[in-house]
């Protein structure tokens, strides 16, 4: 359906260019072959670890490769939702219902077909892991699921990580109403688990956070507020009659009453989810431009979290209604859910009138595509300036390397359309040369009289190298601790049996 219906515009071109440019990301955050050879620093501002797997698919065949990659993401979203819901509810039918509703939800459709930012729907794989992880920690059980989940979310979408964190804090506070927490020993064990989780999450994301922090210290992060869907405006444009408005209010009141009944008869964990849904729903209607802090980029994160919670509650309500029914009724329920959700997705996709589809993806030169991603990559325009005048200069790029050849009888000031970065090693005629930053934020140097051969070689600076190495060892440590806990649990089970 994505192959036939989805629009293939700038966002999709950005996704594929980003994936293709990651071939050298372990040795340098800069790839001179891409982003119009501007030395774009996107990999210092945007996490890349979890999307790295997509590079394999799009570097072979863009059209079919990305479609297969999207199919794989959808499958993993379904599996993740089922596995963690099954561990939470211990009910196979409820887990299947939840995974279907979550994977085929309208929110995920919007993320894939309309907004189209890869990280926005890739991160949905890890949300069930995170919330199951906090559920375990609040029960004084294993902590590493939360550590893995938060680490993978930060490596995918930092704004989602902030949104998740803002929803987890109230849960910890609300635990004072649970009998298990009425002992100092509980809060001691909880504090220790949270401390271990926090430490491992920081260490397993340090390869992204430290280089990003270094860039932020060098200059203010520039970004425009996000234009999110305006639910109030959308509702006003429906132009409902008075009878329709009364009917809608009646349905809303009835839904609230049903939720109150479910709330009163649910476990404490479901009550926490339902309470959290109230501020999340309100956040979708608040005008972000009226706030002191730019809240606009957190709204999509809150929307995805609300979608997760809504899928949990809906599947729970359905199970409570049909739990005493015969097996054939439950089978029909599954068929109806699959059919209904599939029809909804197809109906929404059929309304998209794409001017360009993914079938034309192979015709695009992704190396020439460039945007300002919290940097000034566009300003260079791949145009050399010599003594502040446009000049034709011979150059060649290969991932980490950029070679320039220029001849002038006299020494000249050359402005190279590559953004200045501390990880560059720049030589002029095989000798290190002093460089400055031009008004465009690019590299500026003084050439020698006659023939000048400029070489720019890029790698991570020493801060980036240390951070990535620390990140690698931290992942190994987290993996070792997780396996130790799993093996220890299995031994205890085998001994009891």
Automatic annotation (TrEMBL):
UniProt key word Transmembrane: yes
Bilayer-crossing regions: 66-84, 121-138, 159-177, 197-217, 246-264, 270-286, 298-322, 328-347, 462-483
Keywords: Membrane, Transmembrane, Transmembrane helix
UniProt-recorded name of the protein: Uncharacterized protein
Lineage: Bacteria, Bacillati, Bacillota, Bacilli, Lactobacillales
